[in-house]
């Protein structure tokens, strides 16, 4: 598979596999894809909703992309999103009024970065594979968040969710009647900042050199262990921001669901976005928008064609499979 064609071919193959799976299950692939891909683009309300879906995917995609640049296969964004969301809930529990927003950002990002310290230490000091350690931390974060939302931070008026972000601290829709909030431009701006950091900053250069050749990095006085910490920290910060924004900037609930439904899976969606975007921050933005259209389109596919949402997951899984095969062959 030629390098310039691997992504289009992987996406095309995934849609073919998805169509075959729909047909074998008794659903109409043509009607399903029409609802999935065209409906979100035909109305600004649906398009803005797709962009809202893309924001956290872009941020978690940046987590994986920064890890790749450092030579890491960091899949810890999932747990770090949970911790970011939990930090936002903690802020809503402790503070009322506008002050809850800056506290949510501080607490959410800090918790996410602290959560990444464990796999960073295990990798840099003991050489523990980051895939194993981040999976472990993801599950700990999942059950810790479930317990917190079900007990201390439960909403007494609505037990299925956490306490709500105070109205003064919410990022409300920029266009009334839509889901488009400041979370979307914030996510895209963060992608631009990460691009500048990786390409033009000293530490971005060190991360890239260490990721490509740790031995050469050492010969130039660059500490691979230290760059691992920086890569984990930057990735965790943007993943934590994704979790915060899902609580303070996602109408109508402005809370964390008891089953974590509004944050679950975002870290793994980010892996897809990073692979589709070739690990480039700006490519991650385009891939995130594409995945946002799929997510929004899946809702219409269920309503208009009666096709289950899970078929979108099949498509995403096949995309990752085809791209992973190519990576292993190179």
Automatic annotation (TrEMBL):
The chain crosses the membrane at residues 7-25, 45-67, 79-95, 101-122, 134-154, 174-198, 228-249. The keyword Transmembrane helix applies. One of its GO terms (cellular component) is plasma membrane. It is a multi-pass membrane protein. It is found in: Cell membrane. One of its GO terms (molecular function) is transmembrane transporter activity. Keywords: Cell membrane, Membrane, Transmembrane, Transmembrane helix. Pfam families: BPD_transp_2. This is Nucleoside ABC transporter membrane protein.
């Amino acid at each position: 598979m030629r390098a310039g064609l691997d992504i289009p071919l992987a996406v095309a193959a995934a849609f073919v596999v998805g169509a075959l799976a729909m047909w074998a299950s008794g659903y109409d692939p043509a009607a399903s894809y029409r609802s999935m891909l065209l409906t979100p683009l035909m109305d600004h309300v649906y398009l803005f909703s797709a962009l809202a879906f893309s924001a956290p995917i872009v941020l978690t995609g940046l987590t994986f992309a920064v890890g790749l640049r450092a030579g890491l296969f960091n899949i810890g964004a999932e747990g770090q999103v949970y911790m970011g969301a939990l930090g936002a809930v903690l802020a809503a529990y402790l503070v009322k009024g506008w002050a809850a927003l800056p506290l949510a950002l501080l607490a959410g990002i800090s918790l996410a970065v602290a959560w990444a310290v464990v796999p960073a230490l295990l990798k840099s000091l003991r050489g523990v594979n980051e895939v194993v350690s981040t999976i472990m931390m993801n599950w700990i974060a999942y059950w810790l968040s479930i317990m917190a939302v079900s007990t201390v931070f439960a909403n007494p008026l609505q037990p299925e969710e956490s306490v709500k972000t105070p109205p003064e601290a919410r990022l409300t829709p920029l266009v009334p009647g839509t889901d488009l909030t400041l979370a979307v431009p914030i996510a895209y701006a963060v992608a631009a900042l990460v691009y500048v950091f990786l390409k033009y900053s000293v530490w971005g250069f060190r991360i890239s050199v260490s990721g490509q050749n740790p031995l050469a990095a050492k010969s130039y006085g660059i500490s691979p262990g230290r760059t691992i910490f920086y890569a984990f920290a930057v990735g965790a910060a943007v993943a934590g921001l994704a979790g915060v924004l899902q609580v303070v900037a996602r109408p109508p609930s402005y809370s964390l669901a008891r089953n974590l439904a509004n944050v679950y899976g975002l870290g793994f969606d980010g892996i897809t976005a990073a692979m589709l975007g070739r690990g480039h921050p700006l490519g991650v933005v385009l891939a995130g928008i594409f995945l946002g259209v799929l997510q929004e389109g899946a809702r219409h596919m269920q309503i208009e064609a009666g096709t289950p949402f899970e078929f979108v997951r099949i498509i995403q899984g096949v995309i990752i499979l085809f791209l992973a095969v190519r990576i292993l062959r190179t």
